Amino acid sequence: MKPAPFDYCAPESLDEALSRLGNSPGAKLLAGGQSLIPMLNFRLLSTDLLIDLTKISELRGIQPHGRSVRIGALTTHQDVETSPLIRERFPLIGEAMRHVAHLAIRNRGTVGGSLVHADPSAEWPLLAVLLNARLQVAGLGGQRLIEAQEFLVGALTSSLSDDEILVRIDFPALPRHTAWAFDEVALRAGDFALCAAAVTLSTGGSFLTGGPRITDARIALAGVADTAIRAPAAERMIRGQRYLTLELVDQAAVCARDAISPNADLHASADYRRHLCHVLVKRLLGEAARSSAAFAPSSAPVVEGK
Ligand SMILES: Cc1cc2nc3c(=O)[nH]c(=O)nc-3n(C[C@H](O)[C@H](O)[C@H](O)COP(=O)(O)OP(=O)(O)OC[C@H]3O[C@@H](n4cnc5c(N)ncnc54)[C@H](O)[C@@H]3O)c2cc1C
After folding, report:
1. Are residues 222 and 141 in the same domain?
2. Are 30 and 130 in a shared domain?
3. What is the mean pLDDT of residues 70-94?
4. Domain CATH for 108
5. Model's pTM, two decimal places?
6. Is the CB–ligand 1 distance for residue 151 below 6 Å?
7. Residue 79 belongs to what domain range?
8. Ligand 1 centroid from CA 257, angstroms
9. Does the Cβ of 273 fall within 6 Å of ligand 1?
10. pLDDT recorded at residue 299
């Protein structure tokens, strides 16, 4: 199908794009087009004006910002996957990118487009809530910062107003000794995840203060709710522990599973998604714990057994 007719413009600055957007109620912003163009083609959406953001160079790029990393909204998934800075500071993000669709889509699709599109199964919303990302958005009245969990309002819904543009996303550094793990289950490679999960375990303290402990634990899930979510009750079970046993890992995974109410759809039942949540969280907590074993007392391995 062809989209309904629309006008097109390609501003070269953020100010110009904001002004076109402010003067054209109902205009749509085009980034990589990997979600928007199919929706226009299927006539699930229509617009009088398509504002192409791709010529606005100030919206692109990956920069260090203190200990944070700042990613421009128009940066592609592939730019992130191949970035040396991401590899050094956020290997978890690089790993997650390999699961976003196929290479051709990663070459065009953008970080900002994915966050604004807010698909509940997408990787960027999950990374943003896991890493406490802050999103900088601009409107004609000025700019504002939004926490990831407030930005993601529901399925395919963000808190961005119609006259605002997402400019960049800041990912604050994780604590120094942080182990991580990411994985997802999809029907085929490149498909959206039925369930995706990521965990981080940060350890701190010294033997002088009673030995290292897990100072921060984060668990994020996608595909099991209307937005990407954290599992706060499961995180609390782990935070403050000296080391993780298999029993505790399983209890935390059960806790994460029991807190979700996934929807059923053509691809998976709600029960299967709950099962995936349990399996993934248990596996990832174990993986992250094992790779942080160096920070645990040698007599108390982070995870006992396999
Ligand atoms: C076959 C297929 C498989 C896919 N699989 C996955 C997957 O496994 N995981 C995954 O995460 N994604 C997947 N995607 C989606 C892909 O990641 C898209 O790149 C992404 O969802 C949208 O990014 P985009 O840059 O293409 O945005 P667009 O399609 O251009 O825009 C999407 C929406 O965001 C708005 N928008 C874009 N940029 C801005 C901005 N800076 N400010 C304000 N609004 C903005 C647009 O107006 C539109 O409403 C898949 C897509 C396809 C076609």
Report:
1. no
2. no
3. 98
4. 3.30.465.10
5. 0.95
6. no
7. 57-171
8. 28
9. no
10. 40
